Amino acid sequence: MKRIVITISREYGSGGRLIAKQLSEKMGITFYDKQLIAEVAKKTGFSENFIRDTEHQRPTNSFLFDLYTTVVTPSVPDQVFIAQAKVIKQAAAKESCVIVGRCADYILRDEPNVLKVFVHAPLDQRIRRAREEYGAEEENLENYVIRQDKARAAYHNYFAAGRWGQSREYDLCVNSRIGIDAAVRVIQSAAQAIMGE
């Protein structure tokens, strides 16, 4: 089988992580999500909780701006991202895999064997999933879901050149309202097309 790397970016509550997990199982390839945090922790010496918290901070300016203006050393979030990018590139070079989030679509943008996917869903479905499946207990779930998306967009837009969630930045955009199983089939079909199967 030709090597394929599928990156899954997703709106909060769209079921993107679940889709990615089922896709990896169906295709028999490695699934990377929280394992990446553990690898970055080993490389940087930062704790996994610290890295997780860093990913959820809303950065200012842009990564490229910070690289040009930082004379001595990159900021801690930048250091974490640089280490994370190395881990993602190593995983993609080693084996076929599915990688969730963490700007993997941008980090691997020049690789020909990468399928960049964005998973989205109607807001009402995402609110329901946040409550019923994720156990979110915020008083105003709609605002909470929207804030999660803003944080993801800010993180992506800080480190990446493209805009998070805009269709032209991805090879495939899937609305998970078609169902998790159907979304998995659509993405697998696209992956097989890239592999020439």
TrEMBL record:
GO function terms (MF aspect): kinase activity
Keyword Transferase: yes
Pfam family, one: Cytidylate_kin2
Key words, A-Z: Kinase, Transferase
Domain of life: Bacteria
Stored InterPro entries: P-loop_NTPase
UniProt entry tagged with the keyword Transferase: yes
This protein's name: Cytidylate kinase-like family protein
Organism: Candidatus Aveggerthella stercoripullorum
